[in-house]
Amino acid sequence: xxxxxxxxxxxxxxxxxxxxxxxxxxxxxxxxxxxxxxxxxxxxxxxxxxxxxxxxxxxxxxxxxxxxxxxxxxxxxxxxxxxxxxxxxxxxxxxxxxxxxxxxxxxxxxxxxxxxxxxxxxxxxxxxxxxxxxxxxxxxxxxxxxxxxxxxxxxxxxxxxxxxxxxxxxxxxxxxxxxxxxxxxxxxxxxxxxxxxxxxxxxxxxxxxxxxxxxxxxxxxxxxxxxxxxxxxxxxxxxxxxxxxxxxxxxxxxxxxxxxxxxxxxxxxxxxxxxxxxxxxxxxxxxxxxxxxxxxxxxxxxxxxxxxxxxxxxxxxxxxxxxxxxxxxxxxxxxxxxxxxxxxxx
Length: 346
Ligand code: ATP
Prior knowledge:
The protein is α+β, with helices and mostly antiparallel strands and about 350 residues long.
């Protein structure tokens, strides 16, 4: 990865009449980065991706690709390729022919074409599958053909629009690891669109969190998770307790809203002592959900607010944890794990 910008957005907007799909977005994606655009449905991620590809144009602002203003260039004049969720493979062609398609268009001689195609088959772990048709492949294998077909053109930037969306959870997790490994091997800038926060956290060097056509925060997975910059980010990326008003006042002595992750809170006996670097809140366990590896507790604090607490079942069994239902507890967490968000009513 270098400090050079692969993609630079300067105050880019894309409005469709009244709808501000993308609104004055500034963005700097570095060369060689695995960059994810994360956000709920309708937040503007796909529109950003389409504008980078050239399938759509900004209504205001500029987009630069490695320093060149491409805002008004057609897709075929940009060194960018896209992998779509539905793969868009040619069904009548074999795997090798699909992958070699870009080389054929560029009139690369057959011997060289075969060499590059075989190398690509190996990269995407499909050696031995070259003569099959897409219909004879699994979903994960088809996705790898689509990836190989896009990478063979050596684009400067590869755009991936929810490419793992059609796969089941296990295959999806396996492909996340593979995709990241392939990106590291080829060193090309990947821009990945997803609404799945776990996927973004697993694969990305950096993540942009979108909300209502704007970027709420850009940062590494750890920054986004540990230091959410807004209530929206705290709620969208992982599970977070948002505490405000009187309850915040009582716990921290300040009325400012804060977030605290469920796994940072410890469940203790009601009279447990609190050290100077901790906050404490007393409550009653309203619900216990045993999930094998860990247990999720819903703890009701005196005045109607709830906190979610997650603890690993290192020494506890399902019998132990369910016994806690209805019990009084004290919740303790380190002050350093609290993230203060905006003003009192933010
Ligand atoms: P998803 O995850 O569902 O794909 P997204 O974050 O990618 O969502 P976009 O597809 O970029 O969101 O859409 C952003 C907003 O712009 C939405 O409100 C959408 O309805 C609107 N929009 C997108 N394309 C058009 C269009 N061609 N005409 C009118 N409105 C559009």
